[in-house]
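# nightly structure sweep
# worker-07 picked up a monomer target from the shared queue
# config: single-sequence mode, recycle default, output format = structure tokens
# input follows
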Amino acid sequence: MTTRVAGVLSPGVLLASGEYQVSRVLGQGGFGITYQGVDTKLNRAVALKEFFPEGCWREGTTVVSAGRWDKSTYTDAKERFLLEGQTLGQFNHSGIVRVFYYFEENNTAYMVMEYLKGKTLSELLKSKGGTLPEFDALNYIQIIGQALDIVHQAQMLHLDIKPENIMLAEDGRAVLIDFGAARDFAGRNTTRFTTLLTPGYAPLEQYGQSLQCADHTDIYALGATLYHLVTGKVPVSAIERAAGVPLKTAQKMNSQVSDRTSWGIDRAMAMNINKRPQSIKEFLDLLSLDTSILNSTSHRKISFYQSTQNPWEIFDSLDSPESSDSSSNGDRWF
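# output follows
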């Protein structure tokens, strides 16, 4: 008789006809569980990511869709998980976590990824007293920006860029990890299965169900990450900003931040999407960072919001330098 459980796979469980063995849990999020495992053929450590949406449970090792996940939505989301594995597996960039293999088993799907030893950028921040020197912060942003440009060229978004999702590996690489919120944004189906975002890093369009995300969504989060690195503070959330709470400039938070970097962050974190850089290259250019290795092919522009009026003009006053540090609440959106 099988037992219904909501937990994780036990250490020692074998997957893919014994090719991989589960060792321990590394983390769990809204869409899945990540384990440290072993490639039994090559005798090397790997990370095993299991598709396990929040609300589901198990019968033995078999995952059963439950809660708001019916058979149709569960199957659709699982297929997107597999497509994510297929797409990530094609990348060959030192700044993107490597995917070696993906497969279906236990009524769910798995990705086999490189196991990264090191610390997250968030952990480095804490060890350095909360802030990084501007030069170091810009170096990390350039590396991750170059990786993100590759992701965007593949018509994917990350949608959860933050210091916790940037791994500083022992081999010296800065690696963008946890693509759990990522999805292709050129596909037919733009349905959102759930809202996965991190306040402070997520722009306003991620809070809506009908507003479409694009490159500028990740650029906002990359700018917010730079803001955190040089100020030691998570930015005010987009929802609070829409309600009139001002976002102080990075230079106001830390007088050592240069004019150019502070201005570049302001542009990246503009509430009006039309005022943000529309590509990684444009953002890195604003920061005077090297963009010579980026793909020069222009991105296909995606219509963000079909309307006879521009819904973002309401935020123009909030995006202006004069009002961003004002003590007044300014124009309210709600």
